[in-house]
Specification:
single chain
Length: 210
């Protein structure tokens, strides 16, 4: 089995440290030290710390986005107007697939997604490209057809909620909470998430403040 090259080592180290400490809390020196690389490796392979953050995020998120795109194709092939539960399952399923319980990679993925959602640094949120935008727009359009009473802003708020709830749940699983607060894993957790998130997405539209 071939050993990882320097670029991969830097990506692995950056993913771990960005997930643990956030973008601003992670120095290039800390990344290269953990990777066993020289300080110039980030500039040589990525150009800058910000571009390294983009590479880390895309390496983690692109498999999820690709799977979400394919799942939506499958759903739309069955019916042009799928229900909310089918859309939620298509969107959530790849998140669970990429963040399985008892898996170190899944733990890093879930923590990195939470970092992307919550980190105040613009560099942690500005990594997205046309592929991610296209998948988001496809789901927004499909949910809008299934939920015609929702304003676009509220629909997007709820879709972000799907991502946040799933990522936080996976972080909790990997943190192994105390027996007094058990969490589900595997298919049980997936079923719970789909049931809960379908109900949340299907809730009546919030009335505008008067």
């Amino acid at each position: 089995m071939a050993l990882p090259d320097t670029r991969t080592k830097v990506l692995d180290a950056a993913e771990r440290l960005f997930a643990e400490n956030g973008y601003r809390g992670t120095s290039v020196r800390a990344i290269t030290s953990l990777a066993g690389a020289n300080l110039a490796a980030v500039a040589y392979h990525f150009g800058s710390k910000a571009e390294l953050m983009t590479a880390v995020a895309r390496r983690v998120i692109e498999p999820i986005t690709t799977a979400q795109h394919a799942r939506l194709d499958e759903v739309l092939a069955r019916t042009p107007d799928p229900g909310v539960a089918d859309l939620v399952e298509a969107f959530v399923g790849p998140l669970f697939d990429q963040m399985p319980a008892d898996d170190a990679g899944g733990a890093r993925t879930s923590r990195l997604i939470v970092t992307i959602l919550s980190d105040p640094a613009e560099e942690a949120r500005s990594w997205t490209g046309p592929d991610e935008a296209a998948t988001r727009e496809r789901y927004l359009a499909a949910f809008a057809r299934a939920l015609p009473g929702l304003a676009p802003q509220e629909l997007w708020f709820r879709m972000r909620g799907i991502l946040a709830v799933t990522a936080v749940d996976r972080v909790e699983v990997h943190n192994r909470p105390t027996p007094a607060c058990p969490t589900a894993a595997g298919e049980e957790a997936r079923r719970w998430a789909i049931t809960f998130l379908t109900a949340a997405m299907s809730a009546p539209a919030t009335e505008a403040a008067r």
